[in-house]
Amino acid sequence: MRTQVGIVGAGPAGLVLAHLLARAGIDSVVLENRSRGYIEQRVRAGVLEQTTVDLLRENGLAQRLDREGMVHHGLELRFAGRGHRIPLSELTGGRAITVYGQQEVVKDLVRARLEAGGEILFEVDDVTLHDLDSERPAIRFRHGGGDHELRCDVVAGCDGFHGVSRPSIPAGVLTAYEREYPFAWLGILAEAPPSSEELIYCSSERGFALHSMRSPKVTRLYLQVDPAEDLANWPDERIWEELRARFATDDGWTLADGPLLEKGITPLRSFVVEPMQYGRLYLAGDAAHIVPATGAKGLNLAVADVRILAEALEAWYRTGRTDLLDGYSAACLRRVWRVQQFSWWMTSMLHLFDDQGAFDRRLQLSQLAYVCSSKAAATSLAENYVGLPYV
Ligand code: APR
Ligand code: PHB
Predict the structure, then answer these.
(1) What is the pTM of this model?
(2) Residues lining ligand 1, judged by CB closer than 6 Å?
């Protein structure tokens, strides 16, 4: 088998890349180790930046997103028993975020790619990368009971944090930067109407909680928990009690509940490797970096990477110029580190830390009060949250 760009992983990074390349007339094959059903059901975050929505729309991939996505012009920060609205659009010249589940984005991207005749192979096994430092790298894998080799010009490693691409780079090439947090998120999807029209980021004395949504009938909620926490210790009623306690306000706000559709625990981590490239292998998305979920940036950052990669590949195929490909890693990392800083800042401001004393808590509350009372501070949050157009 032969293609121009071999893409490992059919998450947002790999799928958006396949679409952008196709539009530039560049062939690709996407190799995914899970089934189509699995990746289309996997529940992840659900906030799209303005730039992400614009890119999907420009590429004809936003019909359902435009119908079903929920456009939000503000968000709420809640602490000390009160809510404060940050008017995102007012502070950013009309920019907004769209709430639309990542698995819905994945469904739309897969369908559009297959309808256009694109090749996505699901349920491939034993993917290995070869000859990355040559001009003809190869991907070997098993599929449908047989062994295959895909020869390509370039490999795009879009296979997430646990994929094979990053570990295929020889030791000593990459430098990893990492921070682990002393908490995880217990997330639920509930058949209950959202209790507020906007997202609520809540910093309570019992820990962080987040109110989000997927539709007018489905709420997505998160609780800060210990990273070693066992889901078995969280029967549904305990989750609702804890959510109610954390979101409680002085004026008696109420949280609508309903049957749970999904429940899971996700660790929070900050992680970056530099550079995001080795020979003819280019890493994109979670394969190269992870942000803690507090700013909902993971998908958006993945899309930002592949936009840069697609432009660089297009220039290379069209004119032979290599400067954009050579600058891929540096160009991505500027945004990656901006988003890392923002995600770390949101996380640090809103969560309770184990070793945190009363002094540190006062600092967090002062920071929250400042963000909610100073236009300059609120604008800084808002422009990062809706997504900086250029970094
Ligand atoms: N071979 C083939 N595919 C693989 C392999 C492998 N060895 N390992 C992992 N994959 C697939 C995964 O099953 C997944 O579908 O690669 C895909 C990676 O997708 P994501 O993890 O979604 O990563 P990415 O596309 O970078 O998306 C960015 O943003 O909201 C965050 O973490 C969230 O997934 C999100 C990410
Ligand atoms: C979500 O809706 O899943 C979500 C929203 C905001 C976040 C993280 C996740 O910061």
Answers:
(1) 0.97
(2) 8-14, 31-34, 39, 44-45, 102, 127, 158-160, 162-164, 285-286, 298-299, 302
